[in-house]
Q: What sequence folds into this?
């Protein structure tokens, strides 16, 4: 199993450009998450999904959109990138356990995004 | 979700037990304590979780005080590969409340 993979690993954008970050998991997990991590800070949840075709806002959703068209993929979009979105983005997934998310989340290796 | 307080940094000698404290004085009865770690710039890794009983797995032990207001993560024989930022997280595991709220954690350095 590859676990959770993220594409791309690095990206540099100019202000106003758009891009999509791809997260894929091969563990058949129901739940998927997008976090961002800024220097010296913990991770903050951007959006998450509790199943195919569903998404929900997290702690810092502004400026981002997400889609979960397939169970194994969770896409994070930036429509008009801003320097404040320079960050490391982590995707995670977890399985359903007794109608709830499992205790552990499995994280991908991260995407380093710089917006100039 | 209850807020947690952890020391900013700690050192531990290689081969010794590393004891990482966490304060969660406002924890409620149905909130679990989770520990994750982040090695260098990798994605966080789940370590262990517990509700009120002490827990042990192949990675670590979790000791939760009887009043549940604090806990300690124990790495019994620390190695250099255990150098990481360790996050203590408290949350309710309910459907619809799936998120983990990460603070700034404790930066643990294992010294040879």
A:
């Amino acid at each position: 199993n590859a676990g959770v993979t993220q594409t791309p690993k690095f990206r540099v954008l100019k202000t106003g450009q758009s891009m999509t970050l791809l997260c894929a998991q091969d563990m058949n997990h129901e739940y998927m998450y997008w976090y961002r991590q800024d220097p010296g800070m913990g991770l903050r949840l951007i959006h998450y999904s509790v199943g195919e075709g569903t998404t929900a806002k997290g702690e810092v959703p502004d400026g981002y959109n997400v889609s979960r068209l397939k169970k194994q993929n969770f896409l994070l979009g930036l429509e008009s990138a801003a320097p404040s979105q320079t960050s490391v983005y982590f995707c995670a997934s977890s399985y359903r356990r007794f109608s709830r998310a499992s205790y552990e989340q499995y994280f991908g290796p991260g995407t380093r995004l710089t917006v100039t | 979700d209850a807020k947690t307080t952890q020391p900013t940094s700690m050192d531990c000698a290689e081969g010794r037990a590393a004891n990482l404290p966490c304060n969660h004085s406002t924890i409620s009865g149905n909130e679990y304590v989770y520990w994750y770690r982040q090695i260098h710039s990798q994605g966080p890794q789940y370590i262990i979780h517990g509700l009120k009983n002490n827990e042990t797995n192949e990675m670590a032990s979790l000791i939760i005080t009887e009043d549940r207001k604090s806990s300690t993560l124990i790495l019994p024989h620390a190695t250099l590969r255990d150098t990481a930022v360790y996050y203590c997280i408290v949350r309710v595991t309910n459907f619809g409340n799936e998120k983990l709220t990460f603070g700034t954690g404790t930066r643990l350095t294992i010294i040879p």
About this structure: Residues 87 and 105 of chain B are 4 Å apart (CA to CA). The beta strands of chain B are 9-13, 18-23, 31-38, 45-50, 55-56, 61-64, 70-75, 84-92, 106-111. Chain B touches chain A through 22 residues (CB under 8 Å). DSSP finds no helices and nine strands in chain B.
